[in-house]
Fold this sequence. Notes:
Helix content is 31%, strand content 27%. It is α+β, with helices and mostly antiparallel strands. The longest helix is centred in the C-terminal third of the chain and has 18 residues, at 166-183.
Amino acid sequence: MGLRFKTRESDSAWVDIVWTCTSEQVTAMTSVAGVRWGLVFWEHAGRAYAGITGPETRTGTAPVPEGATFTGIEFAVGTSLRAVPTPALVDGGIGLPDTTRRTFRLDGTRWETPGPDDAEALVERLVRAGIVVRDLLVTDVVRGHRPVVSGRTVERRFRAATGLTRGAVRQIERARTAAQLLAAGDPAADVVAKLDYFDEPHLARALRSYVGRTVRQLREGAGGAIALDLDQRLTS
């Protein structure tokens, strides 16, 4: 019982992952820091909802509607909504009005609510309409390319596109990966070496700040519901 996730990678350059989740006998969860914004659609007690989620810089506790089903789209770093700057979404989100089981409203237009198998089709329509945009410089930096502009320009563009610094993105992503490795049974010492933490206390502090779990809790699956697919086996 708890949160039951299913996650897959996307073949769209605009999308990182698509996920589904069902909440069973749970009313609260540990939220986990994340670097991406997203769209999430859910049904609960016969009603449909939709929202925009923002990057999260820290862990915390969040309510969960019991018995709800969710579909989420996490967009690639460097993308953003035309109407809502990503920095305005950090550690927050926006509920979308007039949502039904079939449609939702975004940027003044009504769109068909996607299922997990047609999420990319929705994103393609949003891109064609100019509602989802991206900074190609930031996209190139994420892919490991070295731009010809100054480091200060890169950092400014990165923060404008993501709401975060490059350093914060690296730290959050590293902690999420560490949590998944530990949950899969990797020894803490191996995770420290693989992810270039200074030592095990350094790893423990990162997990506490960004994931809200200790090494032992991750190994044992303890601590209650968590907004992270710790059994993640990504499929495309």
